[in-house]
Amino acid sequence: xxxxxxxxxxxxxxxxxxxxxxxxxxxxxxxxxxxxxxxxxxxxxxxxxxxxxxxxxxxxxxxxxxxxxxxxxxxxxxxxxxxxxxxxxxxxxxxxxxxxxxxxxxxxxxxxxxxxxxxxxxxxxxxxxxxxxxxxxxxxxxxxxxxxxxxxxxxxxxxxxxxxxxxxxxxxxxxxxxxxxxxxxxxxxxxxxxxxxxxxxxxxxxxxxxxxxxxxxxxxxxxxxxxxxxxxxxxxxxxxxxxxxxxxxxxxxxxxxxxxxxxxxxxxxxxxxxxxxxxxxxxxxxxxxxxxxxxxxxxxxxxxxxxxxxxxxxxxxxxxxxxxxxxxxxxxxxxxxxxxxxxxxxxxxxxxxxxxxxxxxxxxxxxxxxxxxxxxxxxxxxxxxxxxxxxxxxxxxxxxxxxxxxxxxxxxxxxxxxxxxxxxxxxxxxxxxxxxxxxxxxxxxxxxxxxxxxxxxxxxxxxxxxxxxx
Length: 470
What we know:
Blueprint: H1 3-21, H2 35-42, H3 53-65, E1 75-76, H4 85-97, H5 108-125, E2 131-135, H6 138-153, H7 157-160, E3 168-173, H8 179-186, E4 194-197, H9 207-219, E5 223-230, H10 242-251, E6 255-260, E7 284-287, E8 300-304, H11 309-314, H12 344-379, E9 383-387, E10 393-398, H13 406-423, E11 427-433, E12 436-442, H14 450-469
Parallel strand pairs: 1-11, 3-4, 3-5, 5-6, 6-7
Antiparallel strand pairs: 2-8, 7-8, 9-10, 10-12, 11-12
């Protein structure tokens, strides 16, 4: 056995044991360790405290021991959860290979995989001759979409910037992802020129108000150039009316983007793909397979209706050292990045394993788990559904008996969440909206059972009852 094989074997035993532990109820989701304790355990001395490989292996085990178990069946905290095994194997393989997916010469298989996956995902969006690329996250995808729109609709902005342009305006819903706020800063539009359109009680954009804001923008002598509809908002998991937004975007010549970072995977389900009706009318789409498709972070894609939109927007001069005219395919020329991870491999291995039919079942399962939770909360004597949702998130509060004051209910739920984190058995996030503080449970792990969900909710009920006693 070689030196490398010996230590890889040790590591894989640790990794296998860790993955197995995620299925056990007695494994804490969030270990009990303060920052001071972790500093003492790890002694983060960089560059002076040299270690042998076996010591590094021990440190990796401790890293797993003291990390939040995002693959645990009781982890409902973020818009990602446990990675499926085929995707995990693909991720490990791409790391071992350590190729940058920018030229066919360096990453031949990854290049062809990425092109095949972009074609597949584009077809699901209804783009007949679409383009696209794997990017560094949904936030980056939304920003690059705005950049494509700016460079396409504002003459010479790629070369000259915006110094000679009228102010540009971007329109999103009030429940859109905060990445749009950061994105307008990066591309030079400015945060004051991001217009947030109010939503209805279900969290969907009020399209009639969108048109009013566009008309107002024109009257103020600004340039409305980009509108985004969200398919699966972060908190309420609402799906904006894409067909109606598309019609307005078309009437006023705006670039129409769909942020389907969370909900894009619903296109794999015959039962739920109607939530994205109108996506084929978009100019670009964000889609994060690391959410509903259980791919390891990061796995994000920006799709474009035009096959060359990214190349036109992102290509640059002075790249002769990397991109050569005699090479067949150089997907890196269309990217803002230089070095690019081969993120296509982990999605390809997973999709090859589950297929379209298998993924449809997994997507449907997420909706089923959320619907069961809504039913449980409706029957509960202590839980109340704070907002009506129909996607893969459920928003609810614990309503203590005899307490009707909204501020006191909020404070109780905040304390209950702190108690949950301290206990470490379950992790459910919370959010605040309309002066309400509430739990937001997100279903991104299709491998958990109804019994798992019931056990989690019963545990939260008991935790709340104990908190009231004290």
